[in-house]
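Sorry to interrupt, but I need a hand with the structure work. It will help me judge whether the discrete encoding reads sensibly. Write everything out right here, beneath this request:
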Amino acid sequence: MRKMRAKKATGFCLGIESTADDFSIGISTFEGKILANIINAYVPPEGGIHPREAARHHAEVASKVMREAFTKSGLKPADLSVVAFSQGPGLGPSLRTGATVARAMASYLNKPLVGVNHSVAHVEIGKSTYAPPPTRFEAGTPPIGEVFGLGAGFEYLATRDWESARRYEDELVARAVQQLEGVPGVTIHGEARPKVGVVSFSVDGVHPHDVGTALDAHGVAVRAGHHCAQPLMAKLGVTATVRASFAPYNTVGEVDALVAGVAAAQKVFGR
């Protein structure tokens, strides 16, 4: 039955998602029928989120997941029309694995490579609401700037000693956590140790978007929102969080500026 429907398809897309938890490969028709969706999850023994360890796991299982996806779909690699991968921060180890596999696949097959985002409006456990057409059918905003940014990120990482970069990043995160924990009214979400280079927090009585705006006025860039994790936000009992990300190019002074900016935001909003 699958083969009969496949003959009517105008094209086939192989999509790769490589997160801090899962490495998955899906194959679908251009008409939206899912022919395969194979997921291999990384579960840290100690719990928490560990992108570096997850990236190693993903690299080990990538070929196995790929074989299972083609077997399930009944297709051959040559049948593909396009290869897609989930794109995000270029410094994410997990993301790099998926992007590398996708690029290798597209290059070998001489097929277009497309970086995609999301077309979901709202997510709950067991329920998702999709954006209205045409947004739900789009592969994210055309990633022109993101493509150059992703390449620049890879080139930058190639010049670094990864172990030294990891230690330095861990020091920045530890400093940020320690100082933010000392600010009354600030709650840090996520207590895994060691932490990846991200600190998510909320400020009592101040919406994360307002915190982000106030920090921006102090020259500090953060993200504020549900971060594609609405079920987690519901579990935490918050609508959104502020997320500060750290990388080897950040400085101790920028960490201190973040903390000072949070305190200033509290004053602005009378907290």
